[in-house]
Automatic annotation (TrEMBL):
Residues 171-213 are annotated as: Disordered. Residues 173-187 have a biased composition (Basic and acidic residues). CDD domains: NAT_SF. One of its GO terms (molecular function) is acyltransferase activity, transferring groups other than amino-acyl groups. Keywords: Acyltransferase, Transferase. This is N-acetyltransferase domain-containing protein. Gene3D superfamilies: 3.40.630.30.
Amino acid sequence: MDRGVTDLGGGYTARRITLESYREACARLEDRIFGGNWLYSFGPAAKAPPPLGENFSWGVYCGTELVGWSHAHQRDERTVYMADTGLLPEHQGRGLYTRLLPALLETFRTAGYTLVQSHHRATNNRVIVPKLRAGFLVQGLSLYEGGLNVALTLSLDPAYQEAQHIRSGFRAPDARGARGEAARRLGLEPAGTRRPAPLPPLRLPESSGPGEDLGGGYSLHPVSYEVYYDIYTQLEQSAYSSVSFDWPAPGRLEAPAGRRYAWLIGHQGEVAGWQMSRQWDRRTAYMVNTALLPAHRGQGVYSRLLPVVLRALEAEGYDLVRSHHHATNNAVLVPKLRAGFCLQGLQVDDHGVMAVLMLSFSEAYREAMHVRSGLLKPHRTRGAGLGLTSRKEG
C-alpha cells in the first residue's frame, strides 16, 4: 500500500496522504460522517497533546473524490493505534472497510509493529464484525466522553494471539507450534498433547422427529432437556477444547427453576451438535450451550441455526436473549453480532473471560442501547425510554 495506489474495487482506491491533508479532510467532512454520534463536550483543552510519534494517514477515493480516510499513530514501542476511520454515509455499506483493512494491517506489519489496537462504540457492529473477522480480539469495555467503547487488539505475533486464547480459557496450552511458544512465554508447563479417543457417531434419537431443514444436509430437532443432556454428557469432551475451573465437588444446591428449550443438530441421521437455552428472568432467555462437533464446523451451520432458535424464543414471549462466550472465540462472536446481538459486558467466571452479548426483539430497545453507547443521539422517541431528550428537540 505504501508504494502507491491500492485498488479497493468498484471504482474505489486508497492511498497515503499527509497528516495535514487528513486533518483538513476531518475538518471539512467529519460532521457528515460522525454528526449522528452523541458526545460529551469538554470545551477547550487545558493541555497540549502529547507528541504524536510515527503516524499513518490514508485517503479513500471514489474516482478523484476523497470520500473517507483512515488515520493511525504509534502508541508505544510495539503498538500502533487505529485512531480514526470514516466514510461518507453514501459510500458506507459497500464492504470498503473490510477491503481496506488488510492493506492497513500489512503496512503496520511491514513497519515492525506487534500489536494493533482500536476502540469502537460497543453497539457499532458494522465496524466490530470486520475487525473480529480480521483477527482482532475483544479486550475490554470503557465508558468515556463518547459513550461506551469496546477495546480491540490484533496481535501480529501468533504466539501472543495464542496466549490470549489461553488466558481467556478458550484453549489449553500444549507443546505444539504457537501454543507451545505461548505457554513458554506465559511461564506455563504445556499440557500433554493427547486427546480423548473420538467417540463413534451417535444416531439421532427416534424421539427427535423430522426437524427443521438448515440446508447442506443439516436439520434442527427440538427435544426434551433429558434427551439433550444425555447426548451432551456423552459428547462434551469431543465438542470443547476450552478449560473451565475444575470444581472439587458438585454444586450443593438445586438449579433454579425455569423453562428450558433444547435442540439437537442432525446430519445424515447422526448427532452433529446441540443447542440449549433456558429462562434467565421474566423478559430474558439465556442461550446456555451451543456446540458443533469438529467435523461439522466451518460450514455456516451456526449462522443458519441462530434465526431458527431466535424465532422460537421470541414466540415463547421473551423480549431479550442473552449469551456468554469466551472473549477470544470470534468464530461464535461474529455470527452472533451479525445476527443483531451487541456486546454488553465482560465477566470473569469459572469458564474464563467471557463476553456478554444481548439481543433485543424491540427496535426501541435496540435504539436505546445505541444511545447508551453514544452511537446515536437521543431524540423524542429514541431517548424517551431512558428519560433523555435532545435539547434541540425540546
